[in-house]
Known about the structure:
single chain, Hexokinase, domain 1, 11 helices
Amino acid sequence: xxxxxxxxxxxxxxxxxxxxxxxxxxxxxxxxxxxxxxxxxxxxxxxxxxxxxxxxxxxxxxxxxxxxxxxxxxxxxxxxxxxxxxxxxxxxxxxxxxxxxxxxxxxxxxxxxxxxxxxxxxxxxxxxxxxxxxxxxxxxxxxxxxxxxxxxxxxxxxxxxxxxxxxxxxxxxxxxxxxxxxxxxxxxxxxxxxxxxxxxxxxxxxxxxxxxxxxxxxxxxxxxxxxxxxxxxxxxxxxxxxxxxxxxxxxxxxxxxxxxxxxxxxxxxxxxxxxxxxxxxxxxxxxxxxxxxxxxxxxxxxxxxxxxxxxxxxxxx
Length: 317
């Protein structure tokens, strides 16, 4: 029977259908969430486009944004809820596994080939804790006690920590964001909506209608405000990663990932990122020994969901 692995983001949902032999179909499906009232509708559309409407799904793994311990699961950054029993019944699923999206992204980021890793702070990878932080619609984070840990990564809501500005421009950005949102977390800057807000701040126009894609295109065309917005995004992301280095001592490495981060890979200058990452005063040398990478993959969350599905199958064998 068919199985499903899905990465549900705040903006897009990505589906991978797995055949009886455990092989993903060649093409993944991607849907803009704005066109659907619920996750169930997305899955039903995916089945229809495969030419198998109404077909039962044997095993489902969903990687979703936000905490997953409640039922129903309320998704972050999108007004959807997952009622486990109802979803399982609708699709005739024998098993349903719901994990935090960064539990899945952590597994996916660690599994990508070395040729897809950009070294941002060079240091020896040791048998120690691993952090994965990803920027997309929001800013997620998960950690593992070591890279070869058999269990699932531990999800956190670390992206909602208080943003700490580092210079006069960042203080001004903080004040601008605080006036509009109240609490200013790292996610207010290191995310798709954060990039848009930073661009609005630099243009002194809070009503400017623009998307992250527009900003990237403008930056590639040499527009100064767009480049500055992306550089601020990358710099603050590096500072956030440095905070995680201090908190966890992740000698197994910190992996930055996420769809937006991958689209901005050209702006992750290793020297500039390493300088901000290690800018921790008396603790600079402690942070310098932590490896930092950009996992340049657009599908880390989906790849991780597929791995969880395979783990489930191996556990049954």
